[in-house]
Write a structure and sequence with these properties.
Shape: globular
CATH superfamily of the largest domain: MFS general substrate transporter like domains
Helix content: over 70%
Strand content: under 5%
CATH class of the largest domain: Mainly Alpha
Number of helices: 16
Radius of gyration: 20 Å
Distance between the termini: 41 Å
């Protein structure tokens, strides 16, 4: 396996750690800048929104530039924006850094997959792409608990500093050892990328992704203060690790179930489990074993859904799979932006425990759209 591929793994790990770790330090950021928790949650919103909207726009804008230097420059930009986040003198400055970081991440992630596919031989291309995916999965395990632990013990700026360091290593080494130019894909304009969105059946098939992501991030963004209130424990990073373990198992389980019972049944089962676990979280989290069990099942449910969503779209739209899956990824990030934003608005009116009930209801809406799309 070409060693450069492992640098791509490191890059995707850093990007996704940034996306997940921020939820672990929201409370510390809120206190540091004296802003309400719901306002601090908009740091997740602007990052995800920039990523979701920026990925297709930037892909068109940067199509004529050298792909190798675009990747290295985006990684350096991602590192600098995170370093600036660590030194942010105000909350407004930090919001600006998160927007720039989201734009850089929207470039790095697809470029890392493309580079890995280019560097690997035909016999090992699948393994190379799986390794890039493993970088994302690993971030789900360590991102939030490590971010929470650092934020509560060493200070939230060090979380951004760690992410900046990881991406700096990846960009520096890639620049020193050199990377081949990624073969250009024939240009696809914005109109072509979004022309499928006028098809009602496809829109209906994509809506479960939007509401699934919205349900998850509505709660996930604020899970640390939610657990602190429910369990009356200050340090909850260990509990979040249980969620990460469940997510890895759920990712594998989702793929297994899709192969054995089909994507539709997998989606209905996982979304129903997600709705139940989120709804029960504020009720049963008074007991630590129940909390751990619900967090584990939440991780299983949310990540078992993703392979089923991808497989179903690929199966029904094989001729335009790349465009459809790109739209699906954008809706995933737009859903996470909407979830974090809606959670912040709801906190101004409802107690934090209510977020779990709103999340459970939204998961049921996603399930209903799956049924309608059948």
């Amino acid at each position: 396996m070409n060693p450069r591929i492992y640098l791509c793994v490191l890059a995707t790990f850093a990007i996704n750690t940034d996306n997940f770790a921020i939820a672990g330090i929201l409370l510390e950021i809120s206190r540091s800048f004296h802003v309400p928790l719901g306002i601090a949650g908009q740091l997740v919103t602007v990052y995800a929104l920039t990523y979701g909207l920026g990925a297709p726009l930037l892909a068109v804008f940067l199509a004529s530039f050298s792909s190798r230097w675009v990747l290295i420059a985006a990684l350096l930009g991602f590192s600098l924006t995170n370093a600036a986040s660590a030194l942010a003198p105000s909350f407004g400055f930090l919001i600006g850094c998160r927007i720039l970081a989201g734009a850089c991440a929207a470039i790095v992630s697809p470029a890392s997959y493309a580079l890995a596919a280019t560097l690997a031989s035909d016999a090992k291309r699948g393994l190379a792409l799986a390794l890039i995916g493993a970088g994302s999965s690993a971030a789900t395990i360590v991102g939030l608990p490590v971010g929470a632990w650092i934020g509560q013990t060493l200070g939230w700026p060090l979380t951004f500093g760690l992410i900046a360091g990881l991406s700096t290593v990846a960009s520096t080494v890639l620049g020193l050892i050199g990377i081949p130019s990624i073969p250009a894909i024939p240009g696809i304009g914005l109109l072509a990328r979004f022309s499928l969105m006028v098809q009602p059946r496809l829109v209906l098939a994509l809506l479960p992704t939007l509401f699934w992501s919205l349900a998850h991030f509505l709660v996930y963004t604020y899970v640390v203060p939610l657990l602190q209130v429910s369990t009356h424990m200050e340090n909850v990073s260990g509990m979040i690790l249980v969620w990460g373990i469940g997510s890895v198992i759920g990712n594998w389980l989702g793929g297994y179930l899709v192969d054995h019972i089909g994507s539709a049944r997998t989606l209905l089962s996982s979304l129903f489990l997600l709705a139940i676990t989120l709804s029960l979280l504020p009720i049963l989290s008074i007991a630590l074993p129940m909390t751990m069990g619900l967090l584990f099942l939440w991780g299983v449910a949310v990540w078992a859904t993703w392979p089923a969503l991808q497989h179903r779209l690929h199966h029904h739209y094989p001729q335009s799979a790349s465009q459809v899956l790109a739209l699906n990824a954008s809706l995933d990030f737009l859903g996470s932006a909407a979830g974090a934003g809606a959670g912040g608005l709801l906190l101004s009116t409802f107690p934090i425990q209510a977020l779990a009930w709103f999340g459970g209801t939204t998961a049921l809406i996603a399930l209903i759209f799956v049924l309608l799309s059948l």
